[in-house]
# Entry
Amino acid sequence: MTSFAERKKPISPEWDPWDAWYTRSKEGRYRLTSVEFTVTNLCNLRCEHCAVGEALVEKEGVSLPVEQLIRQLEKVEDLQTLSITGGEPIVNRHVVDNTIRPLLQYAKQRGIYTQLNSNLTLPLSRYEDWIEDIDVLHISYNYRDEADFQRMAFANANHQPSATLTNRLFQRLKDNAIVLSKAGVFISAETFLSPFTAPHLPHMHKEIAEMGCKRHEVHPLYPSDFAKGMKLLSVDEYKAAIENLLNDRDPAIWILFGTLPIYPCSHHQSDQDLWLRLFHEPNITVRQDPDGRNRLNINAFTGDVIVTDFADVPPLGNIKTDSLTTIFDLWLDHPLAKKYHCYCPKAHCTGPNLLVANTYYQDVDFQARKAHISV
# Structure
């Protein structure tokens, strides 16, 4: 008999199981197909752009039993993807052994796609005993060199580490990526776009390709937690950065634009032209935002359920008292969901991310707009 795992389609530009588009277009509504766990509030870095930075702690709390987490997953009939985030999930060996590995093994047995978010700066041995159970290893890469890494990765640290230490961590990040990529691990490296990173995006893209990463994700800088005071790109600057990358990219690397702040319902011709280009160039995809459309985040310590791990929407419920599908259905009736869950099938668009909408389109009624183009 073929196992669920053997029936999984390979992840590719033609199949991104985290994308909310598939269920919405096929079934006519959003369904809970993705769950994300925040499994730790510890991290060995204090990055200036960290969108969950204010939740980071120096001493770990007590997590809910993993059996309780898995019982909730068992009730999600349409579950397709499982994501694990933090903090840095790998920094606490107890969390790895007692939460992460059981979750990954459960997902593997059920045939669920998995992703773990890591800064990849820990010794390689910390990854080797569970990495074969992961489908996507998601990392951040926003640096030109060691000096960038030192400035950015410890911008919010109480004590600044030495250049020797930070250089070693940065080199380890790159070395780990190369070794794991050669071993067949699907590494997806994310770059956030800000006034600092945008001019250097093609250079970072080349570094990501040299590390063997299979995918380069490009997202806006989310103005949340540590990043609240950072300067943001305008939409026009964002478009220019994307065009610059598209004109100077490695065609063998899949580029995924997530939470894109550009939409086919825009009246600006440049927005429409860029949208069409992104949908017609090979190895380029635009991911329709999973948060709140097919995914919920669970805090593994409190059981609180939220739309995303870095939004300001209060908890929607708690797994100690509520089922995830009930919470998701309640969210779909929430005023914010009704405001932003627009859908344009001809343009392949499901509307804006909450943070992007609040940052760039506060006065726009997306429900009253229609796409001006078809893909």
Summary: The first strand starts at residue 34 and ends at 38. Residues 5 and 355 are 34 Å apart (CA to CA). The domain at 5-368 is CATH 3.20.20.70 (TIM Barrel).
